[in-house]
Amino acid sequence: ACLLGYAYIDKFQQSEHRDDYETIQDQEEGGSQISSSSSSSALPASPAGVEMNRTLLQQRINSGEEDPSTGVRFSVPPSSASVDGLDDLQDHQPLESSPRRGMVDTRQSFGHDAVLDAHHETENETSEVLGIVKSPALSICLVFFVTLSLFPGWISQLRSVHECQTNGHGHRNRWSNDLYTPLAFVWFNFFDLTGRILSGYLPLARMHHVSAKLVAAACLRLGLFPLLYLCVSHADRDGNHSMTIDSDLYSWFVQAIFALSNGFVVTTAFVHAPSL
Known about the structure:
Elements: H1 2-40, H2 50-63, H3 86-91, H4 99-132, H5 134-150, H6 180-199, H7 210-220, H8 224-229, H9 248-272
Helix pairs in contact: 1-4, 5-7, 5-9, 6-9, 7-9
């Protein structure tokens, strides 16, 4: 789920940047078209043409001439019945619509279409990303399924073969008694970190079929269930667990493989997925 989320966020950000660029570009083009259409009906704002603009606009208002860009008749603004300079020329917009108001409507329409397009693209990208990263994602799910099924639940049940035994001085070794379970947790975290570090030295760029190998490695970790079940635990003390290998060396070795493979496979999957 994390891997899918990371890949989806990356593609979503790329699409958002692309949509923002296209939105700004289209709005600039629409604004330039509207500005050119509104300015085409007026003469340049030069000192020599101000009087001509005033006269031309007054004639259009008196004759009821239509704006060639919108097809709406020119009108006199409510505040004044005369035209006073080039600024008033820009304020004389058609009665029914104006270029500025039309621009807003165009942007709103474009924004609605962009939202719909982004929604469809999001659905397509989600399925596309899931299809690309399915093998690394499956391997991560299998690894965490095995790890969380055994750690910390079953690991906390393991005990030393030398539990409750005393040395020649009549003292008990705490590492084999009350400190055995905390030591097992430290052991797991140490080898888990070691596996994550070792994954950085793996030449993924020169390897083939990495995704298939990750899934195979994750499936092999299912064999840790019986291997850890054979370790000495508190369950065999009650007579509920008779099949054990009475060796601390075996127990520590299996726990090391369990932790090392967890960090190595998970980190390799996360590193490999962005290259797909």
